[in-house]
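Support request, please re-run this one:
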Amino acid sequence: MDLFWLAAYPLANGKAANKNPDFNYFPSADYVDLWQYTDNLLGYKVDGSITVTDNAINLFNPEGAPKGANKSKWVKKSGTFTLAEDLHLHESPHIDSPSIALLKKGDVIKFDATLQGPKRLWLRQPRATSTYGYIVARDKYDKPLGKID
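Re-run finished. Output below.
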């Protein structure tokens, strides 16, 4: 099986990279199976990579990936989301990624895509700086955290 591994990341100039990849910097190449997002993970000067396709998961787990593993894909869908509680807007679609802002109950955001991950439903919010913010619309218990229109 042939895999396409791509190293693409901003230069850290000796700074430690976060443990979570910056999906705003994800390479715009086709057929990427593995993505190295840093060469200085947590300051240990080791590569940080993630698998992004089932091909890569199956290579590392020849018995087959767990049912439903890594099949999440962004779906273009526009709408608004009204928060039912205070929620963090994240830098990337990971619950541990840094917060951009704390949004308040009743706030309404516009989104342009959804991602149903293995545990959460994420919404992607376009930002004025040509980047994105990410917010959880359904938590890991499948509880809606607001209303999608």
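DSSP finds one helix and ten strands in the chain. The longest helix spans residues 54-60.
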